[in-house]
Fold this sequence. Notes:
Shape: elongated
Structural class: mainly alpha
Distance between the termini: 7 Å
Amino acid sequence: MDAFIDRALPELRALVDAIRIMSTLSARDDEPELAALIYLCQRAMRQRDGRPLIEYLRSLGR
Length: 62
């Protein structure tokens, strides 16, 4: 699994960048799906175990 994570790091970094951007957006009241996605991105950007998200994702393979 660790080798897979290492190979996927560029894609994981791109995903983290997209999540970071999404976490700064806001949605109108009539956009519940967008609001839910933004909420999930904001939660994902919180650090896990005191580590940035990319390090947390990388540690999952260990």
